[in-house]
Amino acid sequence: PISAFLFDLDGVIVDTAVFHYQAWRRMANELGFDISHEFNETLKGVSRMDSLDLILAHGGVTLTDERKLELATQKNDWYLELVSRMTPNDILPGVAGFFHQLKHAQPPLKTALGSVSKNARLILERIHMVDQFDAIIDGTKITRGKPDPEVFLNGAAELGVAPADCVVFEDAVAGVEAAKRAGMFAVGIGSPDVLTEADLVVPSLEHLTVTELLAAVER
Ligand code: B16
Ligand code: MG
Question: What does the entry list as the binding residues for substrate (predicted)?
Answer without folding.
Answer: 8-10, 24, 43-48, 51, 75, 115-119, 146
